[in-house]
Amino acid sequence: MKLISTSISFFLLSATSFVVTATPQRRSDINEVVTAETPDSSIIDNLLDHNATILNTVKAFDGIIFGNFEAQTGTQRFNGSLAVQGNFTATNFKVNSDRTIDCPVNTTAVSLDSFGLVIGGALTVKNATVNGASYHASGSVTAEGIKNNDCNRYANIDFNVLQNEARTISKFFANQRPNMVIRDVGYLTDGEYTSTSNQDYYIYTFNKCAEKFCELPNYLYSDSEEIFNGGNWTGPYNANYPKDKPIIFNIPVQNNSFFNMSTANPAAGLEGAAVLYNVYPATATGAYDPSGHVVWLRNTTHIINGFMLAPSAFVVENNIGGFNGHLVASQYLSVLENEYALLNSNPLLYNALLNNNFTLNDRTDFNNNITTTNNSTTPINYNNTSTNSGA
Q: Residue ranges of the domains in the chain?
């Protein structure tokens, strides 16, 4: 258990910011959202004794994507550093835009902290700019088509080990019984406090299953309607969130389906807290599904602070608002507001996402590539499209 809890703590304690954005003018007022506080760095130092390779990699990159990363033209930047196991597609795009990193003089032993972008698959880019060093595994060291002041260095990242670790941590949290509950219309109350419940974190679990008998009793499930599903959420109405310990939001999503985070500000009331959003595939009874995959649609208008742990999720972002912290996901797609509205209203496009047949540059004939069985989606193919096992 020490292996899991140590790694978990590190994920929670990393707080560098990133966000994919469109035109800065659209976000001028949103940028006023409070940024999460950085926890005590001495705790991080202690955690590095566990597995320096894994933890240094997570610490170095704000976004870790185990499949493909695609940004529609007009979504202008990813503010943090980025490691992509699969393909990278972007036009007029900036990576690591919030940092200024001097190119390392040493070309053989380069710290991962010096990298802005690492890519394991194919590059389809036009006018992409990176702050920091770059590495493209499929094209040797040189990241073709990327402007980075010729700062091309070699990086060694084992994405498969990282993904396994991320899934282990996601499962660990999914199996914890909630000790906090948000009830109907936002009433905050205690969950389960027993000798076997984990009291190192404030744990909330949302999305009660549709079966008669779920993994948890009904009274331990938090209501997701107001906080995530388009309500006017301003935080719990009867009390403030307790913030003296890290907060875990477990969000089980039934396998081969979607989690649509559509409330304007689901993070209302969480300013200054250390928060982890654990979005994971679940069986019909709400149990963690180790072979499942889901789609996470983020349609907020405010910045969401925290660590986004979704190693089995295809994350799709609207260009309004954004994540601020870390993102670990299976695949990633950022789209403009009008494209997001199309995705949000067209179930055929949902199916295309689930079956990994959706590309922004080839939308006209996507209907021909969709496979369905009895009006339900077939199992998601989330195998990496790149032949590289890691950068």
A: 2-377
